[in-house]
Write a structure and sequence with these properties.
Layout: H1 3-11, H2 17-33, H3 41-71, H4 85-88, H5 93-110, H6 112-115, H7 119-134, H8 148-170, H9 179-203, H10 205-211, H11 216-220, H12 222-244, H13 252-264, H14 273-294
Helix pairs in contact: 2-3, 2-8, 2-9, 2-14, 3-5, 3-7, 3-8, 7-8, 8-9, 9-12, 9-14, 12-13, 12-14, 13-14
Length: about 300
């Protein structure tokens, strides 16, 4: 594998939807519930800043995951799934560490317009970077302690959506931050994003167990993963439907089809398609929520959340 292709693979492009979706959803929440927000190019600047920051943090997290799993022996020849560049020898650990630092610095630079709005947003950004690196690196790697699902729902769902909503709302003093819809939308999106991790961990059950990587699937088994997959799909769409109306709920048949297929999977290779399917469901849900907002389909009975 060439160096360029190795770095692209290390970015894990299919996972980047988890960074884009909450930014789009945060903007949609402000548009749907932030009464009084003027139309301004500044909103696009802030959304672009949030997007650049989120993408760089996601890439840094992916780099850290590649490095951390390699150093801890989780990525072995027995593992089924996409090639991991550090364990395969395509990128050295030292080069990957430099890549992590570059991604983090870019995140800070691109996120500067948002960070300048409030010291709290700056601190929240630093916390997001710290959590992304702590996922598999450091003395207490979250993924190895069964906290990966909490991390995904909290950081790539609630935190990213709420902070985007907050940043755009703070641009105008006459707009009240719509906390309730932002939190509920972030929770729904985070649950859908967690199904990417659930599929990944269900696939890697045997190899994670062998190296002591105590994911929730290792702790509770693949039966738990199947139930969690269904819970995330149903409750995630229900949360989004409560905020944005009926539009995201049209995905329920697709979510049910995916879940029934997931319940039938047993061997590691059989879980592979469900990573892409979970990302696809998340992307479709985001598109429908944004569409509902643009076409003013958000129902009047959701106004209690303003």
């Amino acid at each position: 594998m060439t160096t360029f292709r190795a770095w692209v693979a290390a970015c894990r492009p299919k996972t980047l939807v988890a960074a884009v979706a909450p930014i789009a959803l945060g903007g949609a929440v402000v548009a749907a519930y932030g009464q009084g927000a003027p139309q301004s190019g500044f909103a696009l600047v802030l959304l672009s800043s949030c997007l650049g920051f989120a993408l760089c943090v996601q890439v840094a997290c992916n780099f850290a995951n590649d490095l951390g799993d390699s150093l801890r022996g989780a990525d072995t020849a027995a593992r089924v799934g996409p090639r991991r560049v550090v364990s395969a020898g395509d990128i050295s650990p030292a080069a990957m560490r430099r890549g992590i630092w570059i991604a983090c610095l870019l995140a800070l630079v691109l996120g500067a317009p948002v960070a300048l709005l409030s010291p709290w947003l700056f601190l929240a950004g630093l916390l997001a970077i710290a959590c992304a690196l702590a996922y598999t690196l450091g003395p207490f790697p979250l993924a190895y302690r069964g906290l990966g699902d909490v991390f995904v729902v909290g950081c790539f769902g609630v935190q990213a959506t709420v902070l985007t909503t907050w940043a755009v709302s703070m641009a105008w003093k006459d707009v009240v931050m719509p906390w309730a819809p932002a939190l509920l939308a972030g929770l729904g999106l985070g649950l859908l994003a967690d199904n990417i991790l659930v599929a990944n961990n269900a696939r890697d059950y045997e190899t994670d167990l062998a190296v002591g990587k105590r994911t929730t699937v290792v702790r509770f088994g693949r039966g738990f993963a199947r139930n969690l997959h269904g819970f995330n799909s149903l409750i995630g769409l229900a949360c989004l439907g409560h905020v944005f109306g009926w539009a995201p709920m049209v995905l329920l048949p697709l979510a049910l089809w995916q879940h029934l297929g997931f319940r039938k999977a047993a061997q590691p290779a059989e879980f592979l398609p469900f990573l892409g399917r979970a990302a696809g469901l998340m992307l479709l849900a985001t598109i429908l929520c944004v569409t509902a907002t643009c076409l003013r389909w958000v129902p009047a009975d959701s106004l209690w959340m303003r």
